[in-house]
Specification:
heterotrimer; A alpha/beta; B alpha/beta; C mainly alpha; A: alpha/beta; Rossmann fold; FAD/NAD(P)-binding domain; 6 domains; five-stranded parallel β-sheet; 23% strand; elongated; B: alpha/beta; Glutathione S-transferase Yfyf (Class Pi), Chain A, domain 2; 2 domains; 10% strand; globular
Amino acid sequence: MNETKVGVFLSDCGNQLSQILDFDALVNHVKQVPGVALVVKASEFWRGEGLKTIVDAIKGKKISRVVVAESLPKLSEIRVVKAAEEAGLNPYLVEVIDLKDHCAWPHRDTPSEATEKAKAMLLAAIERAKLLEPIEKLEFPITKSVLVIGGGIAGMQTAEDLADLGIKTYIVEKSPFLGGLATRAGRFFPTDDCAICIQSPASDVKTITHTSRKCVYRSGFTEIPNLNILTNSRVIAVEGATGNYKVTIEKKPRYVNESKCVGCDLCTTVCPVAVPDEYNAKLKKRKAIYMNVPNVHPPVYVIDENVCKFHDCAKCVEICPTKAVELDQKSERITLNVGSIVVATGFQECDPSIVKEYHYDEYPDVITNLELARMIDGFGPTSGEIIKPSNREPARRIVIIQCVGSRDRRWNPWCSSICCMISLKHAMLIKSAHPEADVTICYIDIRTTGREHEYYYERAREMGIKFVKGRPSEIVHDPETDMLIVDVEDEILRRLLELEADLVVLASAMVPAEGTKDLADMLGIELDQDGFFKEYNAKLRPTETKRRGIFLCGGATFPKDAPTTSLHAHSAAMKATKFLSAGKVVKDQKTAVINEEYCGDCEFCPVTCPYGAISLVPKGEEHFVAEVSDLLCEGCGICVGTCPVNAIELRHARPNQMSAQMKALVSVNGTGKPLILAMCCSECGHTAVDSSGMAMMQYPANVRVMKVPCTGILQVHVFLEAFKAGAQGVMVVGCKSDGCHYEVGSQKAQKKVELAKILLNEYGVEPERLMMHNMVFIEGADFAEAAKTMTERLEKLGSLQLTDVS
Amino acid sequence: MTSYALFLGCTIPARQPHYEASARKALPQLGIELVDLDNMTCCAPPPLQSIDLETSLSIAAYNICLAEEADLNMITLCTGCFESLAMANTMLKQNEKLKARVNQILSSAGKEFKGNKEVKHYLQVLTQDVGLDRLKKSVTKDLSSLKVASFSGCHLLRPSALLKFDDPERPHVFDELIEALGAKSIWYRNKLKCCGGLLRGYADDVALAIAREKIVNTTKAGADCIVTLCPFCFLTLDLGQMLIKSAFHEEYNIPVLHYAELLGLALGIEPKELALDFHKIRLDKLLSEIR
Amino acid sequence: MVHEKDDETLRAGFSGEIKHRLGGETITLCYQCGTCAASCPVAKVTEKFNPRGVIKLALLGERQEVLSGSAIWLCSSCYNCQERCPQKVEIADVIYALRNIAIMSGHTPNIYSEFASGLMKEGRIVPISKFVEKKRTDYGLPPLKSAGVEAIKKILSTTGFDKIQWKKEGTP
């Protein structure tokens, strides 16, 4: 192998730093370091001539490692690394440090001390650079197709976008018809248009223009090229990994051939079995062979196998003019190979029987908002008439109760977020059809936070809908008058009211869809505390999950109204497209690597890895070793911090690299103060140091910053090594414990620090010498303060006397 | 015979010997032995909890300790006693820190709460130890013409998280026990709501207004009598009708009985054995309907 | 013994004071939905008591008004509200905590002084008349067992109950 030749490039940031740092001394210091082949000083290296100097040196084979001292906030690292790569040097052989924000500016009051610290920083970068190893780019082929789970408005819109973009798309819907909750809702707020109206596919078809919304049945949804629709189907197994999933679907028999049925309705006229229609709130009966409503999709009948008498009856088979009824259909297993999965399983209305004081399960005239929606729908079971289900008489005194089983710590603590608007919509639709109706909404808070939603509320008041601020304590059925009585306090009047009602409507909580937990387990993705699918990051990655290639949209993550669901659906489609478009995942191999000689038979790392990147594989008889997936590993090193036998390392933060860096940082003092090593994670911890420097907050130069991938990589022996090398104190600076970029890293570090405080006491290290800090960028002042406090504390403690335990 | 340490409390021996007499005579006929222990005190009910919760918990725990020492589970007649004792028993069994705090206090009286005994209301003993079948078979009188407005009182059911007696919104245990005797238990408005008894002595007018509502609702529903479990409810509804008469000039005369009395009558115990002369509202008509 | 503190200094901290007392732990969960008021049998017959109102006043730090007023003594401890509270505020227990603080601060209704003295003297809060005690034999009831007055006295002295100064303020 060729000799390692380090090129060191010192920027004085347009001569600013020369006011503080003695560059001549730095250059002389660096030149003496073994392995340094080139030292150049200029005013900047992140662009222009400076950058060209680096590129030329690489191209001229003068150097094989690059150390650049620049200002990090200027994106210098990205620019330099890219340029080096283009010049033919592996980007992982470049080390960039910041003499401005990490040294000159925060120590401008003590220039000679700053110069000494700069020497240490340069030495550390050089020593680390000498030990760096090239890291290769890996490519993982992926299957360019998507499975969308759920055929409600979220799933349909995502699938449509994906298919339009030329990606092979499957949509799996568990019920026999597409449309999900929306089809039952009838109308949507705030426009009061049909819920089943969707965007038109971009396909160039005579009846479809890109500007129009269309009824689902006219939308041509089923005709979109690349889109495969599987209704009456559910996911039963998922195998494989990112980019290449093998999904097993169970397609239940419909008993009606989709390609033969003409939807003539003759079958339902002869079917002798009638059961309460769940879809229509049991307000009417349906036959064993049925369609929910005439405008459903696909427009093909289905047989309810739980009630059909099959060959004992077979009247439908006899009458069907196209021989579409096939009573011997069996359920099928279908295997799909997809690169990506979008979860669009939505939410459901909670059964409000749990709120016993409202007697939903006892009183037929207590119904839910979704059931009311069926009554309001002209296609619904009452043809739009509002009735008392108990006797089918018209209901004219209607009380709607908000937050039923929602915002209720006994059941579902969250606000279901859409019920206020749903209830307002229902109240207004009733009032428009029946101006004489008396409609009262009992609420805790009216939440109309969307665009135009407040006007909707305003219109409801104009229409004479009554509002009572108060959550009812009980609904009582008076058997004498057959009336419902709602006990409620109007808080504004401070008066107890007994509202008389023909019909009470419960705005029942919106909860995770059935089967959410099972699906999450199958996909290996997380749920939040409320049981909804959890996104990777609510602010920045609202449609992604921790598993690359698995996306979320719509009500699966939280109850959403239609506009928000649309936004989410289109966003998920874009993310999935971005993931699939290259047909491969390209990723640097900055991953963990196992030393199989030491590894064996423990489960710490596979259990701890936040990305499920480590598995155990058999090695010989009854012996297991860990195996790292380079595709899933994010290179945080939390596994390293967990391994009890040091059998796992990061390629880009090997123990010898970290050790050399650490020793160099405390090799020069020159401040007369106790040396402190601040082990900062590469994310929030390091940015807190940036920001204190950017704001020129002053802290003493005895504080030396060592960047690690994540504080989760640290182990007790690393702290001991730091003290042995000469550090008098150690600060561990990680992300907030609930905001770690690698999920659990800073929590793990916290525990490690607590443990080290106990263990290192044996070596004479007082617990106060080791501190954990959790900081983010905007807390630069806290970093400066902590550095000062630690310095003072160490000065009081006096010099560290390490006990020789051996 | 299943033996229980009888916790009598204050109000029953002081004011309602008819409750005590009917229980002492009826329960042994069903195989329940009531054992009297020395040194029991007040259970520390809401009036004392209002003064100091920690002291009240300690007093309740002290009484449970007596049953623990006698190696007996405890039975209460009064619903108020049941609430204070069962609540303390559950809280201290669930919460180690609280238990340690209370045991520190109890050590001054030479006691230690261990948490190895149950506190049961006698309705629980009737359903769990005797059983509805045996109860039905033991009935010798015909109560079938009786329409009963059952009123369990608040503290049999609530706080349900600690008492775990019955479903607090849809209780059924008490009504089943009434129907087991042959009578009919009827629905009336606000059945589960309070009688106001605990406000007597502080705000008599408020207490009476609440009691009146209970009397009005049960009368409206056509009840022949109200059946209670708690001596406070009894007092509020029985004596209360006298007070309503003078305050509101309304006369209801709806008889109020403790369940133990109805049980005694159903088992065939002679009315004069049951000290029924302590009732303010006459029972003559009611007794004539029990054959 | 806690004495009445300067109202201003305690205003901010009253909900904290309640939270730290046995029974008062859940008060800050309240979001004022009024389920308690609608459940309350007392609020139904008098405007002097509204559990939601009491909690609101306490959360606003109106210590003096809460402790010296009659409202906290008008709860009938029926626990209806507590069962139904959607935020799991232990309302009846919060009222006990408020009553405990009120008594420590010298606001004791007469009837409670009577309960306390009965307990301290006889170990029972309802005195037993000679008349009823004699009648027991007529009904075939066994003689009454004696109450553990000594044990009660020791417990009361340990918790400081016997040192509470029973100001006779009368019914507020």
